[in-house]
Amino acid sequence: MNIRRIQMKDNYSIEQIIRKCLMEFGGNRAGLAWEDDSLHHLYQYYTNDENRAYWIVEEEGTVLGGCGIAPFGKEEDICELQKMYLTSTTRGTGVATELLNIALDFAKLHYNKCYLETLQNMQGANRFYTKSGFERLNAPLAGSEHFACDAWYIKDLTR
């Protein structure tokens, strides 16, 4: 398995993985990544600013998932872990930990905190984020775009 920065050729593959995961967990509805304007052109979104980045996991030329870091709203010291999705066969293999570590190493260079939003019914993801040092919040941060999420986390990157 190879982890690398997103390329233009990855847009369609990663969009399809994200959409499939969202459908699997009932996330194909308003207020979630399903409707994000950037979903069909992630390469352009994540490469037009030095404070953003997106990593792809691939094996033998097949994209298996990815995740990104981008600023959270208008906050200068908070980033958001975005679109962390893997194919069902890739989940539980340790790849998510590798991706997260790469993303957080990048985030620490630009931000003091990392925020993320997800769904409670993505139980494995919630356990993973807690195990990875994210603290559960009672409500989303002001400025959240994904109003349909119901689980919110933050991690202090300065520790």
Oligomer state equals single chain
* Biggest sheet descriptor: 7 strands, mixed
Mean pLDDT: 92
Distance between the termini: 30 Å
* DSSP helical segment count: 4
Query: Helix fraction?
Result: 25-40%
Q: How large is the radius of gyration? A: 14 Å
Strand content: 25-35%
**Strand tally:** 7
Task: Show unreliable segments.
Answer: none
Structural class, by secondary structure, is alpha+beta
User: How are the strands ordered across the major sheet?
Assistant: 1-2-3-4-5-7-6
Shape: globular
Helix-strand topology string: EHHEEEHEHEE
Description:
With 159 residues, the chain is an alpha+beta fold. It has helices at 11-24, 42-47, 95-110, 123-131; strands at residues 2-5, 53-59, 62-71, 78-86, 113-118, 135-137, 151-156. Strands 1-2-3-4-5-7-6 form a 7-stranded mixed sheet, with helices on both faces. Strand 2 and strand 3 (62-71) form a beta hairpin. The longest helix has 16 residues, at 95-110. 31% of the residues are buried. The model has no long low-confidence stretch (mean pLDDT 92).
Short description:
The chain is built from 4 helices and 7 strands, in the order βααβββαβαββ. The chain is of the alpha+beta class. The longest helix has 16 residues, at 95-110.
Task: Annotate the secondary structure layout.
Blueprint: E1 2-5, H1 11-24, H2 42-47, E2 53-59, E3 62-71, E4 78-86, H3 95-110, E5 113-118, H4 123-131, E6 135-137, E7 151-156
